[in-house]
Amino acid sequence: MSTFTLILCILAAVVLSSFLSRFIPKVSTPLVQIALGIVASQLPFFPDTDLDPELFMVLFIAPLLYLEAHEIDKSSLLKSLKISLSLAIGLAIATMAAVGLTVNTFWPAIPLAAACALGAALGPTDAVAVSSLGKEASLTQRQLGVLQGESLFNDASGIVGFQFSILAAVTGTFSIGEAAGEFALSFVGGTLLGLAIGIVVNWVFETIRSLGWETTTTRILMELFLPFLLYLAAEDIAHVSGILAVVACGLFVRFDHTGVGPNVARTNIVSNSVWTVLSFSLNGAVFILLGMLLPDAMSRSWEDPGVSNTMLIEVILLVSAVVIGMRFLWVSLMLRITKDEHTGQRRRMTPERWRSAAVMTFGGAKGTITLSLMLTIPYFLSSGELFPMRDELIFIASGVIIVTLLLANFLLPLIAPNRSTDNSAEINSITIEVLRQTVEELTRRVTPENRRAVLMVIDSYTKRITRLKQRIGDTDPQGYEQLQIDALHWEKDYVKEHLAAIRQHPLGDAHEQELEVEACERMLDQIMNTLRHASANSSRSGRAVSQFRGRFRALQRRVIALVRRLDSKIRRTTPLMNENELLVRVRRLQTEAIECVINRLYDEIRRDNYNTEHCSSLLLDYRRADSALRSRPTAEGSTAALSMAEDVKRESYGIELGVIQDMFEAGDISRAQARALRRNVYVMSVDADSSM
User: Fold this and answer.
1) DSSP bridge partners of 651
2) Would you say 649 and 445 are in contact if contact means Cβ atoms under 8 Å apart?
3) What mean pLDDT comes out for the span 137-150?
4) Average confidence (pLDDT) over 171-178
5) Residue 78 in contact with residue 261, Cβ under 8 Å?
6) What gap in Å lies between CA 610 and CA 480, rounded to an integer?
7) In the Cβ-directed half-sphere of 584, how many Cα atoms lie within 13 Å?
8) DSSP of 528-544
């Protein structure tokens, strides 16, 4: 039960981190999650955490690296493959040797083999942290490709180097030839196994789809199981690198995303959604666990009276400087000797290239793999003695992790500031324009038969526009209020014209004439009273004058109506007016005035006098008022309207796609933006098809 409680608490912390990251955008999500993990570890109700490194690798690292390899830009990876492999292998070995010699020299109590194990554990960079670096820093495609490629391949070299260093520390013997052979077997064997499994998986999925056996459930389950099963098979059966097997398979497998039809589209959409949720959950859980483990891993050394805390801090800073310095020199050397892909010549180190080297240096943050490796250090040597300085080594590794993550979070935005505009705000603005044009086109297709159904669809579009405008802070309440006031004036003008027409061409029945006139007078009083209250934004003196004039005119009309009634009663020219009859006439006149405003709003949507979303929103309000005045529709009518609304909704998706294509051909949006907008429409279209 404690394990289940721990899982729930970690997931709750992951959800909380997604909300907190919105309020502190300058701090990367991994740092927020580490802080939450540290806080959670101090809470009394939070279960204790004991990390099984092997379980951690198969449960978290294997699926995350598989997904990272599956989604990485293959062309960028191929262009930067040499640099990525040199960092993953050459730099990892050089860092292991440099850190080992430095730590052993500065603190002789730490054996050379144990210090080399620390250096090997600090070799792997964190793939999750690398993928989140582009938030506040502006990294080029090449820089991201190098960093992501390195993070995919350097885990194997770090793990193998760590294992042989620990073996040397425990047994006291070490063979360079044996270590090199073991490393080559693990590296090459894991890669070949992953490629072979990828070929088989591609063939299996193509066959299943061609035979019509594929279902969404089986497809998603097979995708999810693949990285776990492949890692276990590589480690326990083939005895090669499970990490490299997962990475190679992820790079090669494609799960046959081709095909045409709603079932294929639905399966692909569900697959992407599932992997998105799973990757965010696993990423968050990894850093939450890291934060939970750090206090316990560091407290034992910090509280040990026999160990100088000053010495611990100095070693952390020294090791961090060695790791970062080695990385900067290695990256600079690789940039200097790498030939230009166009000219074939080596390029000189310009200030821009030095800056690129610094970006890739601080972009190599350490993370959970480093800590998980350090926690596997045995407690005893083969002789039965305690492993020397075990707690101190874990403390140093934890400190270096924190230093590199902080540098990546706060120095990268300074070295490579993100000067680009907010893409989310830009795409939201473009989406609003697409939706606005779609509403305008839907308005042009209104007929008396489909008016109610089209209004339902316009309602959904209006709500989407409102949500997007609120998200980017682009609301205009004054504009909407002005439109409401203008609509009231349209009502008033219609009633005045109707009243003038009645007086100019009197009805044959005097009683009917008086009812119509009285209904118009009451409507005008109501509208004028509403207008007086709607003018709250005008000046105080102007509002007082307006209210005085309105009330005087209302009183004048009522006096005239009263005099007319008394005159009719005295002369007995017309029967007394019935209040129920008058109410019916007022409601009918209100319905006619509302219909006039609705038609005017439909016309305004096609023009540029008012915002389209304001017109469509007010249109909905008037339609609701019209429905309240009229008799309630029958259940059959409501069902027919809903069915017709579904047809209109599917038609609106086609309109949206047409608007997107027109904007792309006109150069208003880029190809990437058009692709993103189309993807959203396709998702809604597939959802509409699935609900049929």
Assistant:
1) none
2) no
3) 72
4) 70
5) no
6) 9
7) 7
8) HHHHHHH-TTS-HHHHH
CA dist., res. 265 & res. 256, Å (int):
12
H-helix segments, 505-611: 510-534, 540-571, 579-605
Q: What's the distance, Cα to Cα, between the start and end of the chain in Å? A: 42
By the 8 A CB rule, do 68 and 152 touch?
Answer: yes
Nearest to 436 by CA among 604, 276, 557: 604
- For the chain, domain boundaries: 50-287+300-420, 424-505+521-536+594-690
Asked if the model's pLDDT at residue 296 lies above 90, the reply is no
* 386: β partners: 380
d(CA 201, CA 490): 67
Question: Could you count the other beta carbons within 10 Å of the beta carbon of residue 142?
Answer: 14
Mean pLDDT of 80-85: 80
| Long-range CB contacts for residues 260-266, cutoff 8 Å, separation at least 24 | 262/686, 262/689, 262/690, 263/216, 264/209, 265/682, 265/686, 266/216, 266/686, 266/689, 266/690
At CA 18, angle to CA 13 and CA 21, rounded to 5? 115
d(CA 92, CA 117) in angstroms, rounded, equals: 11
50-287+300-420 is classed in which CATH architecture?
Answer: Up-down Bundle (1.20)
Average pLDDT, the chain: 77
* For residue 548, pLDDT beyond 60: no
3-state class (DSSP) for residue 376: coil
Of 111-125, 243-257, 265-279, 528-542, the poorest mean pLDDT is in 528-542
User: Are the beta carbons of 167 and 117 closer than 8 angstroms?
Assistant: no
Place of tokens 């019209």: 626
Q: Give the integer Cα–Cα distance in Å for 353 and 365.
A: 20
Q: How far is CA 655 from CA 53, 440, 441, 612, 616, in A?
A: 54, 10, 7, 16, 17
Q: Residue 480 CB: number of other CB atoms within 10 A?
A: 16
Residue 172, phi-psi category: left (phi > 0), alpha (psi -120 to 50), beta (remainder): left
Predicted structure pTM score: 0.61
DSSP secondary structure string for all residues of 306-328: TS-HHHHHHHHHHHHHHHHHHHH
What whole-number distance in Å separates Cα of residue 383 and Cα of residue 527? Answer: 97
> For residues 425, 430, 436 and 440, what is the CA-based torsion angle, rounded to 10 degrees?
180
User: SS3 letters for 146-170?
Assistant: HHHHHHHHHHHHHHHHHHHHHHHHH
